[in-house]
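Model it.
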Amino acid sequence: MVAKKLLIFLADDDQDDRMLFLEAIDEILLETETKTFDNGVDLMAKLLENDAPLPDLIFLDLNMPLMTGEECLVDIRNEPRLAEIPIIIYSGYMDYDKINLLRKKGANKYLQKPSSFKSLQGLIEQGILSIYKSEFEQAYIIKEDRD
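Modeled.
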């Protein structure tokens, strides 16, 4: 497991999705502190505060008002102090051309929002471990198996 308590930022404009994420991450076996943002502008403002601790990982929704997840991704990767923060795109949107473009722009992983809470717990944990555990599965897209 990951040895230290992880500071995780989640940017998602959907309040229900933020609440589900928080409930799911509280139930996995990793120590985390999660801060949420309902838009990309607020996320970027926090990241650009000079005295604020940087997150260990960012989960970033694609479709947000004011500033999209893609715009945030590009800005984060262009800011030297932030450029190495792992980013998992967190979206229900599954367009493989868009997913490949996001990868080229610097996203570390792409997590498709699942249809069940139990799947959400497992996928969040899988996403975190895939960033911090080199022996863990290295697939770029993390999604629910829908048989």
